[in-house]
Amino acid sequence: MNLLIKTLIRLGLLREDLDSHLVRASLVVLFLFFGYQKWFDYEAQVLIPYISNGPLLFWMYPVFGIRGASWVLGVSEWSFALLLFLGFWHKRLGILGALGSCAAFIGTVTIIPFMPDGWAASAGGFPAMTGNVPFLMKDVVLFAASLYLLKQDVARVAASAPQTELVLERAGLKATRWDPGRSCCSQSRA
Questions:
Q1: Cα–Cα distance, 175 to 190 (Å, whole number)
Q2: pTM score, two decimals?
């Protein structure tokens, strides 16, 4: 076992940021592909049982229609992909991407209990999954990955913030500083 551990260390597979980079890159690719699909009618039709039964998404059809809801989801997924990608360099943008990713997967995970015929009656129902439920179960892991990235980015932003800024933030305070280059006062952290 020690040999295995030493070999993994020498290979660099356990480098400090490798895990978060792989998770971030995986989510970027996933959102790019999923977002791309949303522009086509076949995907809009596939989404009907998911959106119709989603307690957080059902409102999209009355507001946007079938194709419009698919397009809104596509734009959202591409936006999350872009923010997550930019998070490689700008952790604050990564935080926004990770928050969007968390929201997306909360939206899909909440569909699971409401999916018609999602539990195999012939096997006694829950937890025997059937139909669309097994497809949605992956989103539990994707939500966890999104939460992990959110935690990593928040920790990195907090670690790079000046100490006085962190003290003010923890106290819930903001310092107002007048900026002569602007027409009015601007909020900034002192």
A1: 6
A2: 0.78
